[in-house]
Amino acid sequence: xxxxxxxxxxxxxxxxxxxxxxxxxxxxxxxxxxxxxxxxxxxxxxxxxxxxxxxxxxxxxxxxxxxxxxxxxxxxxxxxxxxxxxxxxxxxxxxxxxxxxxxxxxxxxxxxxxxxxxxxxxxxxxxxxxxxxxxxxxxxxxxxxxxxxxxxxxxxxxxxxxxxxxxxxxxxxxxxxxxxxxxxxxxxxxxxxxxxxxxxxxxxxxxxxxxxxxxxxxxxxxxxxxxxxxxxxxxxxxxxxxxxxxxx
Length: 248
Description:
The protein is of the alpha/beta class and about 250 residues long. The chain has helices at about 15-25, 40-50, 65-80, 105-130, 145, 150-170, 190-195, 200-205, 215-225; strands at about 5-10, 30-35, 55-60, 85-90, 135-140, 175-180. It has a single domain, classed as NAD(P)-binding Rossmann-like Domain (Rossmann fold), CATH 3.40.50.720. Helix 1 runs parallel beside helix 2, helix 1 (about 15-25) packs across helix 9 (about 215-225) and helix 3 runs parallel beside helix 4 (about 105-130).
């Protein structure tokens, strides 16, 4: 699935799922702009891509800041060319009982997980319209499909990502732009390891029919397909990569 000649942006590309997606799209031939709040993580991902012979650019910045997104987009265009692939992966999680969620915590969750993808899409869709071709993949969560205990703010933000995906898919379906989302299940990432979850116990529970956590590469493979020419007739779709945790 060659992406030669395409420029891709992956937000949150400095670690975990975002890094795996960045590496995969680079292997597919795309020039990849790695947008991440952590400059060291972004630089590490770029170094891995370049060591494998790919082309990449690190863009440190806040994926929920309109000004920061505009700066990163301008640098990406200047260095790699117009953006025609966008993977909205940057996000945060949280485990807090509902009655203890503060307004500030709710607002931060929505700003990063939902406002961020909105701002990124607004910034790059004009490039896609000019090219008559574009691919957007939003990384949501299986928690948006099922709800999650003590994660009301997180689940709500990711539910918004799912419906944003569908709305954009409808609006731009005749413009050569597809918009899809991947709700990962239980994926073993640094962010998950840092959460108050026993990764091995959770993976072995009935919540994971395969009795193992997913790998970031599992999400990257699905993303690679959705941004390819082979997926040109797929839009507004939720492609669950969850080991059978959610079966719509």
